[in-house]
Amino acid sequence: MELVEVNNTNYAVYVHQQDENLPWLLMLHGFMGDHRVFEHLVEELFESCNPVTIDLLGHGKSSKPTDPKRYNEHKQINDIYRLVHTLNIFPLFLYGYSMGGRLALKTAFSTPELFKGLILESTTNGITDEQQRKERRHTDEQRAKQVESNYEDFLSKWEEAALFQSPLPADEILLSNYHNIHLDQDPQAMAASLRGFGTGSMTPETKYSSGFDGPTLLMAGSGDEKYRKINDRLTYFFSDVHLCFIEAGHRIHLDNPSALSNEINHHIDQNSFL
């Protein structure tokens, strides 16, 4: 692990392989996660890339500001931009899951020249209807208050949400590890993250604002109806896109890691030399 300072903020960075013959893959985790949610994937990804996992702002061993304004999308995009240049990891593919997918999408649209390809798992482009966005901001605020008042109670309800149910039997070891990763997060930082970069606070992207023309892989779980529909719509945002539905719930990397790794390896192999 290396702490890398960008914009007066420390990011925990984990480089898992440095094969000069392979491209890099920067992996962005979801809300209440950290780099460890991808640990069981990285060895399978060695055949196609050099995986680099990080702890996003407020998570894991990275800095944990409690001011929601520091989690603003533009500040986090700039953090990722500077982090990539500081690490000098080129050529580079970008991968993100859920919250990390939203940040990956925004970063790729803002700085498309950085990335050879984009990989999004269970990702939304945001909420385009202003009334629905307002309602989601209210929901995010209520969740933030619950996180601050009783984090373990919030977490127990969160993990039982229908969104995370899978058509496949759970791997109890991976599930237990995931729960412990959630427990390790700082409640004040999680509340600030919700307020500053929740789905309701994020400026939605539209196909008219898309600035990324590189090869894009979209993945959604077969049991995740909401995100299957969202990703169907997302295909219109890209000129070079492949959409696949993998037998899983929302957390494909947890529910069906081998299938997800195979898709990522294939995507990188097919597009590394473009």
TrEMBL record:
GO molecular function: hydrolase activity
Protein source organism: Fodinibius salsisoli
Compositional bias segments (type: Basic and acidic residues): 130-145
Ranges where the AB hydrolase-1 domain occurs: 23-257
Highest rank taxon of the organism: Bacteria
Pfam family, one: Abhydrolase_1
InterPro entries the UniProt entry points to: AB_hydrolase_1 (IPR000073), AB_hydrolase_fold (IPR029058)
Keywords tagged on the record: Hydrolase, Lyase
Protein name in UniProt: Alpha/beta fold hydrolase
Region Disordered: start-end pairs: 126-145
Signal among keywords: no
